[in-house]
Structure formats: C-alpha cells, structure tokens
Amino acid sequence: GLCRTSEIFGASALVVGSLHYIQDKQFQHLSVSAEQWLPLVEVKPSQLVDYLQEKKTEGYTIIGVEQTAKSFDLTEYCFPEKSLLLLGNEHEGIPANLIHHLDVCVEIPQQGIIWSLNVHVSGALLIWEYTRQQMIKQKHHQ
C-alpha cells in the first residue's frame, strides 16, 4: 500500500529493506503494479544509519513519524522540499538506534483511544500533506 501511495503522489523513491518484497503476492496485490513506475531502493537494516547520514549530506531533512515530547503537529509542520520520511515498525515504531538520526519528529493529531495508526496509513497521511504543501508552493511561484 505504501508503494502505491508513494507512486500516486510522486515520491522520488521508496526505500525497502529487501527487494524480495516485491515478489510477495500480497505486496503485488496491494501495490497494483506501482513498483513498475516508482524507483525502489534496497537498503538493508544494517545499512540504514549510513544511508540516512548520506541523505543528510545531500541536504535532506530526516523526518520521523513519532510521538515525542518535541514532536511537531502534522497540521503545523512545514515540510522542506528535500524531505525523507522514516517510518517505524508496525508495533514498535522507529527503533531507538535510529531516533537520534532524525532531524524532526512529526505526529498525526488523533482523538481516539487507540493512539496508533497502521504504518501505511501514517505514511500516506504525511506523503499527502507534503504533496499538498508542495502544490501550494508551486501555485505561489507561478
């Protein structure tokens, strides 16, 4: 689902822990061929810290979807053009060893009891908000 969302909203790439995922029938069912149109980059978990550091040197802001004492509310956060979105695991969130590599944490305002969204849904909401903000910036520059 995240692959499909990323392709629909024009993400430059989707980073996955293994390209073997695209062989999975469930992946193919949910992606609806999006992997054919979206660049997929394989970064094994052991390589992720180095990858994030490399992206920082390229000018990317590393944004985590996480509820912390310093998190920005999604409705108030202004995404830089060069944004890299780091999503956590379905139940544990972003691993502790990666948290200090984040430049910023953004949280999705919630009203319910559960306080936990599926990773794909969280990613989709942030990708949409990024896209919405970029569209507004483009209109102002025309």
From TrEMBL:
One of its GO terms (biological process) is tRNA methylation. It is an enzyme of class 2 (transferase). GO terms for molecular function: RNA binding; tRNA (guanine(18)-2'-O)-methyltransferase activity. It catalyses: guanosine(18) in tRNA + S-adenosyl-L-methionine = 2'-O-methylguanosine(18) in tRNA + S-adenosyl-L-homocysteine + H(+). The keyword Isomerase does not apply. Coiled coil: none annotated. InterPro entries: Alpha/beta_knot_MTases, SpoU_MeTrfase, TRM3/TARBP1, Trm3/TARBP1_C, tRNA_m1G_MTases_N. It holds the Pfam family SpoU_methylase. SUPFAM superfamilies: alpha/beta knot (SSF75217). Residues 2-127 form the tRNA/rRNA methyltransferase SpoU type domain. It comes from the Eukaryota. Keywords: Acetylation, Methyltransferase, RNA-binding, S-adenosyl-L-methionine, Transferase. Its EC number is 2.1.1.34. Belongs to the class IV-like SAM-binding methyltransferase superfamily. RNA methyltransferase TrmH family. Monomer and homodimer. S-adenosyl-L-methionine-dependent 2'-O-ribose methyltransferase that catalyzes the formation of 2'-O-methylguanosine at position 18 (Gm18) in a subset of tRNA. Selectively mediates Gm18 methylation of tRNAGln-TTG/CTG and tRNASer-TGA/GCT. Gm18 modification can enhance the stability of modified tRNAs. This is tRNA (guanosine(18)-2'-O)-methyltransferase TARBP1. It comes from Alaudala cheleensis. The gene is Tarbp1.
